[in-house]
Amino acid sequence: MKKLWLYAFFAAVFIGLGFPVTQASANTSFSDVGTTHRAQEEIYYLVEGGIANGISSTSFSPNQQVTRGQAAAMLGRALGLNGEKKTTSFSDVSSNYFASGYIQQMVNKGIISGYPNGQFQPNKTLTRGEMALLISRSFGYGANSVSIASSRLMEKGIAQGYADGSFGASETIIRADFSVFLARGIHSQFRTSDEQTFNRPMYVNVDSLNVRTGPNTQYPSLVKVNKGQVVEYGYTIGDWSFIRVNGKEGFVHSSYIQIDVPDPNNPKPPVVTPPPTTVPSDLVVIIDPGHGAHDPGAQGFGYKEKDVVLSISKSIKTYFDKTPIQAKLTRSTDVFLELGARTKFASQNNGDIFISMHANALNGSANGTETYYYRTAATNPYVNDSKALATYIQNRMLEAWDLADRGARPGNYYVLRENTMPAALAEIGFIDNKTDNAYIASTTRRDQMAKAIFMATLDYFYHYEGRKDVLPLYNTVNGKPSPKLH
Ligand SMILES: [Zn+2]
Predict the structure, then answer these.
(1) May I ask the CATH architecture of the domain 284-477?
(2) Which of 298, 350, 414, 469 could form an SS bridge with 305, CB 3.0 to 4.6 Å?
(3) What is the predicted ipTM?
């Protein structure tokens, strides 16, 4: 069932009917792939969009092993990166190398890191483990190790393990197999599992938008959709979103769909946001567990604030570690840090935002969750940003723990005031209040809180900073953006 339309599609290509395919792709036929090779659908799909090329006009060499350089070029094209040759950061990839542009852009996006000796070894044969990491990083599956990346690929039906249960991470790959993995990564209808792909309604914001069979304009249009129409969003490939509409699945440029209903009273064309980068590896989130060592912070029922907020902060980091966003903790052990050391750490680590984690106490007489921001621009200029950040944090904390809502409110705290970035201070609850303490004491509840802070951060980047590229990261927790709140 799954591949039905593709069979129909390729039949149409070869007969030369039905789809407005480009001249080049319609004429593409490799003598060593033919029409019966087991990977012919996937190979022709990639060639159609200019993602893979033959080694000549008549030959694809499906059994030749894939080099690291070739793999980078194919993934770079799939992501729609600019392939113009350029100087790279690797000693063994010259600016004349055919994939130098793709390689360097993928370095910039955190997809490629190369070897510790400063080499990339572009002519070395790619292994299955490297393939899993490359595909995982390119398409935002949030895996930082070969073992996690290979599990993700197997879960998604992109790659299969061997009969003995292993993934064969050190085995090499031939071009036919790499084409199969890549095509499956791009288009879910090539995959071997029926994992739920579409999980979020979004709105089209232009008329006559082409839904294409692949993530670039070389792919033919399947159907057109119009402004205000609802599509189901699945995932992102480069600047394109894989969507389903009226039973058809295909790609639209991500600028033309949005979470919010487009304003029907606004006759002006929508503002098209700049195309997002592939993965937000440039973002750094500073997490600041309050107190430490001889300063226990608030205490109640045998619990100390310094320990609770450290454990939650470490969990927050594990959520970010599944994404390209870097989370950095001001302290990860029970040590004492002056307040000035915390803000200094944040600026030295080029933080984009700062979140300080705390718990309250008031002789057991108060309860609830609150988030602070600093509202006088004299010291920290990021007033509106900080307020928005605090608002998104407060929203997610209430969603996670449903304690009393004490609001997102202004507060004159050193780590907010003397900071150089949007900053918020979360008070998760009152440690000396019986109701709140039951949440604070529970490891399950702490993990919910960590996830809430993670999602609040994505909400802030997505809604306030307009970072559409964080959208796929919600998938790491099966979540979706909050409503726009600022
Ligand atoms: Zn505190």
Answers:
(1) 3-Layer(aba) Sandwich (3.40)
(2) 298
(3) 0.99
